[in-house]
Write a structure and sequence with these properties.
The complex is a heterodimer of chains A (154) and B (129).
Chain A (H helix, E strand, L loop, with lengths): L2 H28 L9 H4 L4 H21 L4 H21 L7 H18 L23 H12 L1
Chain B lengths: L5 H29 L2 H18 L2 H21 L4 H22 L7 H17 L2
Helix pairs in contact in B: 1-3, 1-4, 4-5
The chains are: A mainly alpha (154), B mainly alpha (129).
Amino acid sequence: MTFRRYLILGAVMIGASVGDTFLSKGMKQVGPVSLHHLLTLLIALKNPWVFSGIAFLILFFASYLTALSWADLTFVLPATGFGYVIVALLSKFWLHETISAERWVGIALITLGVGFVTHGPSYTNHNHPDTDDDSDADSNPPELTTAVKEERSA
Amino acid sequence: MNLSGEAAVWSMIGVIVLLATAGDVLLAGAIRQIGDFDVIRSHSGLKGAVLAVLHNGRFFSGVLCMALSFFSLLFALSWADVSLVAPASAALTFVTNAFAAKWILKENVDGRRWIAAVCVCAGVFFLNR
């Protein structure tokens, strides 16, 4: 794991947690959405908090895709869970909120889980049964696919 | 339809989890077909990496599922607290994704990763009590 890859995992954590928080604030301002008026969800996009939340979620999405290009899904996902720890620590040390003992247990468990997975390999050896015979694979330039395989086997 | 009940909220969380898992698996499968972005960028630049993504059909299926999951989340957030919906859906998605990664993506989900998934899932639960 290089420093740059840790930065990408950091962007995954921050993008998801801040994005969700902004979306929540925005949707509370918009109010409950009825099943019969689902178009209200599109109008909600005009809310600045919802809009800012989406901007952070786009940051999350770009860094998430980048991380998936060199790591397994089961490696990247626990890292996103660490975002909840970031939010809890920000609320404690920045907003001076009280964190209960149960929350500290939660923080410890998530940190333990992320520690477990990040000390293992980011990409495990597995077959690509869907790569060789899938038509989507034809859309990739062959020299790139070869380059990727050479890079991974190095 | 009465959406004020606890069952309705958990139904919404279930829909979010299913769509998010489908989106994650489809996106991971698509990106695995495409390959390491760093390598692609070194050969074809950022434009090449973006084009490789945009030419993958599975990527768009994943984005569609993620978009539907997102609007389900917005819908749920307008009815229930974020402190329940966000962590509950995230925690359950860790578990469903671990199963999906093992059985669909054929990832080598070893003991270390199962422990990590369970720890994060339990941690999210405790964090929001």
